[in-house]
Design brief:
Blueprint lengths: L2 E10 L4 E10 L2 E6 L10 E3 L4 E4 L1 E6 L12 H10 L2 E6 L10 H14 L3 E4 L15 H7 L3 E3 L8 H14 L2 E4 L4 H4 L4 E2 L2 H6 L3 E2 L2 H17 L3 E3 L5 H12 L4 E5 L1 H5 L21 H12 L5 E2 L8 H4 L16 H10 L5 H16 L14 E11 L18 E11 L2 E5 L1
Parallel strand pairs: 1-4, 1-5, 6-7, 7-8, 9-10, 10-13, 11-12, 13-14, 14-15
Antiparallel strand pairs: 1-2, 2-3, 5-16, 16-17, 17-18
This protein binds zinc ion.
Amino acid sequence: MNLLIKGGRVIDPSQGMDAVMDVLIADGVVLELGQGLSAPEGTPAIDATGLIVTPGLIDMHVHLRDPGLEYKEDIATGSRSAAAGGFTSVACMPNTSPVIDSKAVASYVINKAKSEALVNVFPIGCITKGGKGESLAEMGELKEAGCVGVSDDGKPVCNSELMRRALEYAKGIGIAVISHSEDLALVGEGVMNEGFVSTELGLKGIPWAAEDIAVAREVYLAEFAGAPVHIAHISTVGSARIIRNAKARGVKVTCETAPHYFTLTDDAVRGYNTNAKMNPPLRSAADVEAMKAGLADGTIDAIATDHAPHHPDEKDVEFNVALNGIVGLETSLPLSLKLVEEGCLDLNHLVSLMSCNPAKILGLDRGTLKVGAVGDVTVIDPAKEWQVEAAKLESKSKNSPFLGWKMKGRAVYTVVKGQVVYQA
Ligand SMILES: [Zn+2]
């Protein structure tokens, strides 16, 4: 619970801080920031010379698959994967079995996390009962149980009137609504981005319009209701443009994208690579550029992984029937650091995208190293080179399109409430 982190470059956008200094954590809380700090005898210390020290990273969109789908991942393994990726907090989506649409299931996640998780686990509850899109879930009860947001992630709320009620009700009780924006009629039987590559491979395509139309609806509903909405995993030129324009006229819309959407194009699907199958699908080079531009100009508020573990039996199959999604917790930070190396973002901005902003969107008392804040810290070696190997991933599942990739940069210490929960 006590820890002295010495001599690192402390980057904390929540207080405009970027300087070499020490961080002293006592009883799990940030006690002091400054140069040449001393700690009581016996306090564990980390020499962070040459390293970057940030408020603990937060992944606001992961699938821990617990309860019910523990053959893919569980709260313990998912949290180990998070810690290895530098994340001190994750928010987990409710499309488990059963879904998180009641106090009982939310409490199960919270209690299991308390006893088994290395990092903070904040559950997200369903927008609709059973995630079925028919009637609103008991959002008040979910919030009371500890849910930090509501989402029917995996599926859109197709009924616009129901989504309007959800936004209005959620605004009233102060809980974030996270939209999985997709027009299912346009998606049809599509399995990858609609374009040149899908034609060449003979696979059914998903047009960008399927995402853009749904994002536009959420923006108009949020504007109409005067309520905030957060759009999950945006991937298209159009989504970024719609959200940029909406923000400019004062709509309370925020959004996230995932590292794969600013790193890979649908070219990765060639060879019918099921580890490149996800929803939304990998898009075109223009979409990748739009994600970078959206991150750079503040249109995109957060980087989230959409960590989606699957068993080999669900991925080592014909492309059309393979399940959507990839694991992402352990590759998110280096892929995001690449944006800094390319000059797309500076480090301060990156820390906002991966810590401060997700905390703000979900209303978490995290994402800051202010004195008195919870002592969640990530210590990053931006120069550390390593290779992604399935056997070394902490996640129970290995469905990553980045296997074999050489990475630069990783978390070398992950600290939760003053305790080192991961050390590289
Ligand atoms: Zn989703």
